[in-house]
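note to self: the first set is below, dont mix up w the second
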Amino acid sequence: MAQYTIDDLIYLMSRLRDPETGCPWDLKQTYATIVPHTLEEAYEVADAIEREDWEHLNDELGDLLFQVIFYTQLGSEDQRFDFSTVVNNLIEKLVRRHPHVFPDGTLHSNCADNPISEEEIKRNWEAIKQQERDAKEAKGISRVLDDVPRALPALSRAAKLQKRAAQVGFDWNETEAVLDKMEEELAELREAIKSGDKAAVADEMGDMLFAQVNLARHLGVNPEHAVRGTNQKFERRFSFVEDQVLASDRDWDAFSLDELDAFWDQAKAKGL
């Protein structure tokens, strides 16, 4: 039996959006209403990879691909773009950004003879992206942070904002300076807490988190990945604590915090 292709998926999407015979739910959707589903699918892909759940990764990638197909169907209906346009623009951009693989700027050009280091690749990548930003500047987009996506998760966007600012020299030279900044922000947070000013607390808490992201960036740690890992660790350890409570036939409020902490320490000792 022949397998379905990307063309079949595009056709399926057009059927779902058919004004007369399509799916009522799909017909109601807009670019904006699909966005939450897109974010959810992207996170489910990331979760499957982190759990090394390769069987479900296949399904999750399909769900994420469907989001792209949905947007391109809407674009086609609005006569803005279609799937072919998206693919063409993507390939043009990737060929342009990989001159070490496509030296004459065409998809089927031969690879360069001289190998290139990863550091050179990163420098070239940033230089090419800067050229693209300069081209946008000529069209009226001129600010350093303009094209950092606003829809990113807050920690990821903080890291990208900091990285972009660093490219023009606005950055700490040493990790120790970032640690000093964190201590400064912590002191300001303590003062805000003492004042009882909730707005000030929220503001200083944001500054503290932003400084922590900056430290993660200087240490080469992805903050989103680090926090997701900590979330998973917390779930494992808390599940152990919960197991002990359930095995005791006592209610949660029958345990003191010290007793629950003791269970937590047992979970840590077990490597959970």
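second set (the one i keep forgetting abt)
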Amino acid sequence: MSDRYTIEDLKTLMSRLRDPETGCPWDCKQDYRSIVPHTLEEAHEVADAIERADYVNLKDELGDLLFQVIFYAQLGNEDAHFDFDGIVDQQVRKLIRRHPHVFPDGTLASVVDPANRPDDAEIKASWERIKAEERASQAGAGSGATSQDESRLDGIAASLPAMVRAEKLQRRAASHGFDWPDITPVFDKLHEEIEELKEAWEHTQSQPDDRDALEDELGDLMFVCVNLARFLKVNPDQALRRTNRKFDARFRAIERVLASQGRDFDAQSLSDLDAIWQSVKGVEKTD
């Protein structure tokens, strides 16, 4: 017997947890929908560990995320929809199909001739073409939608986090020529949306219950910010998470400074807090 457990052991464990007579009551109650929040949480914890370069905990977080896949596979197996081996098989086939520049004969054993390797632009074009073919095939075999229902934006899940979906929508539209020619008009649009947001805010001062326009304009501004990030080749979600960490570190630093001086945070004026804020800038680079 091996000293280390395997993926087969993890599948067995999952099956045991779901046993209606001897399994775990909590696990037995779960379904596809109920574990989605846990899946999202585990994915975020993986990202957090990577961003903190916490590779000790990353191993544990990756295990938690893998367990989510095993859980879905067990549910699929119970419902006769799919099983773990089927998930693996489909994924390997898909990745071989999408990487003809690595697997030229469409088999895992095939090897590309480095002398005939396509350049990055050709690889990207091939990737997009293959994914478009997959979407067309899925649409034809799926919901029975007519050609009028089909869109070049099909396949971008509505349940994605809003910022992630905004970027994917923009990238898909841009791949079909619907895009700004360069970054200059994006900056112009940013200023335009700020002014429109100000106008919407001013409107709510006299009509406080009419907030639809305010939400619309704020959403437009955020959408442009995502567009700007795309042109800057910056991941907007990662950039915001970085700012969140920076704010968290600086705020905690203010608390430490005040605590060391025996001062009550809530009793300080905004100007006093801002002065300490300015003094602790950069603390996140050493924490």
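remember for set 2: The chain has a mean pLDDT of 91.
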